[in-house]
């Protein structure tokens, strides 16, 4: 059977394409593009073959299978889909309307709660975000001290079951802040919160021992402690929200004492403790670069130069938006670091491969290699540049529409009489 040409995607409903059952999935071939695999040098005039949601072939001399839908990508470029490793996508819609915000629960300690259960697949933020090349993201709860468990999701699908890549990939811990005025009172409250955290970790260890060695049915089930067991056993990653020098140092010491595997998120003052982070091999998920410096006495370009400084120190970094409405700006958070000392390829990897490695999903995401999930973008230029257009978008092996609310409103008002 002769291979067929596959052209436009914009007219196909996004959720419909993303939610096709396995039996209806076809074989696709992206042909003639420059392919940035991020697993090796770029492939000129290459072909990527996709089947059953995965990449089955990639290279310069790949044959197009009979019956495949072919995308003629001559003059275009193929990249792994971009990855926002800390967002609120699917958890919040309109910040001023409380009924549309499901990011935070009551209480300071909620390790048993999973963000995946609250994801709203029809959120308008999701199509807007993926139209800019972001194909998957970590969506995380917020609030309290232990917010709950974050999930890695595809940015397409009818239900969370179709969207989910990992429903529990990391625990979110907000490191306690310290009140500066009056300092004595603030320090006392800070120490109290840290001791509370220590108590939770110790209780989780005792709970694990009782569950393992105790008689069946005699250990009263505790969902919160049960959720913390993988954390204290070093099996579940902890993303620690910490920005100040003191918070980062204390969080690292706490992790070492309790055998926790951590990532620092935020990391505004990470440059002050880069030797410690390098020594402990702790990666950093950086907050948005497109912001003002944290303090009046800092250089205006501190948010832009921080990524390059950490990279030069040998610390693995990733960029994130920590948001839903601004998740679409992810490529530009990385791009703004490039003129300030971060190599371009490192910036690209910081929104593709490195977050996948940090979160332990690089066996499925982050590069264009055989066997990995086919989350890909086909562009007419550098995906970190604002003028670049995403021509084709594949999520979980399915071509997905780039149509979104922003584009519809733009067209509507452009045509206004």
Helices and strands in order:
Layout: E1 4-5, H1 14-18, E2 28-35, E3 43-51, E4 54-59, E5 69-72, E6 77-80, E7 82-87, H2 125-130, E8 134-139, E9 146-154, H3 160-163, E10 164-174, H4 183-213, H5 223-232, E11 237-242, H6 245-258, E12 262-266, H7 274-280, E13 284-286, H8 302-312, E14 317-319, H9 330-335, H10 344-349, H11 353-358, E15 376-379, E16 390-395, E17 398-399, H12 405-414
Helix pairs in contact: 4-5
Tell me briefly what this model is:
This protein has helices at 14-18, 125-130, 160-163, 183-213, 223-232, 245-258, 274-280, 302-312, 330-335, 344-349, 353-358, 405-414, and strands spanning 4-5, 28-35, 43-51, 54-59, 69-72, 77-80, 82-87, 134-139, 146-154, 164-174, 237-242, 262-266, 284-286, 317-319, 376-379, 390-395, 398-399. It has 417 residues and is α/β, with parallel strands linked by helices. It folds into 2 domains: 1-80 and 367-417, Roll (Urease, subunit C, domain 1); 82-365, TIM Barrel (Alpha-Beta Barrel).
